[in-house]
Specification:
It contains two helices and eight strands. By secondary structure, the chain is of the alpha/beta class. A four-stranded mixed β-sheet has the order 1-4-3-2, covered by helices on one side. Strands 5-8-7-6 form a four-stranded mixed β-sheet, with helices on one face. The longest helix is centred in the N-terminal third of the chain and has 12 residues.
């Protein structure tokens, strides 16, 4: 018998409440603070579950420099007709474009960093 498991991706940053607010707003989710104020969860009704943890020594990845690998990143998918609007939302909430060339069509992907410097990708849902 397999033990039931649940996974949560945790991003480190200096200000977890602020970064959790960014992702909650962008993903249409909510934030939850438990007994540890240095850990804020982002939970959505459509399966979104990630957490943001305070790390006073956090240094953002330097994408795309190979000496500072990104380790992990979020891939956020949207329908083909909504990627431009999702891009506008991300930037309005504080995301910074890293590589947003419009590939067009079903393989369109665009790379940003969140307000704390973590890279994430907007991609057309296939």
């Amino acid at each position: 018998m397999t033990v039931a498991k649940k996974s949560v991706l945790i991003l480190d940053c200096a200000e977890p409440a602020e970064l959790a607010g960014f992702y909650a707003s962008f993903l249409g989710a909510e934030t939850r603070v438990g007994t540890d104020p240095d850990l804020v969860e982002v939970v959505g009704h459509s399966g979104t579950h990630l957490a943001i943890r305070r790390d006073h020594g956090h240094a953002p990845a330097s994408w795309p420099r190979p000496e500072s690998s990104q380790q992990a990143h979020l891939r956020i998918t949207v329908s083909q007709g909504e990627i431009d609007e999702a891009e506008r939302e991300a930037i309005a909430l504080g995301a910074r474009p890293l590589d947003t060339k419009d590939n067009g069509g079903p393989r369109d992907t665009r790379i940003y960093s969140d307000p704390a410097g973590h890279p994430f990708t907007l991609a057309v849902l296939r």
